[in-house]
Amino acid sequence: MLRHSLAVLAGAMLAVAISQVAASYAQIVIPTNRNALVQQNELQQLQNRLQRQQYQQQQQIYRELDRPTPPRNQPDVPVYDKTCRMEAVGNTISRVCR
Questions:
Q1: What pTM was computed for the model?
Q2: Is the pLDDT of residue 25 over 90?
Q3: Residues of the signal sequence (predicted)?
């Protein structure tokens, strides 16, 4: 009886060890689960594609932020004192300050 129990225990331990090794080396495909495996692969591909697009969009935003913007020139706007007045002579406008 003891010999039989030891043999069963050794067989169970061997089966567990083999199943762990087999699972680490290859994915076991059961024919009824083949469609689920295909769907899982397609889902993984879609997730990878989405992550790649999000990464590229984020990189584009970073590039736009890092791109130097040309300095904006202040427009040359004449400032007149209260004592100055503008005179139009023909096509020429001049200011007269007193």
A1: 0.38
A2: no
A3: 1-23
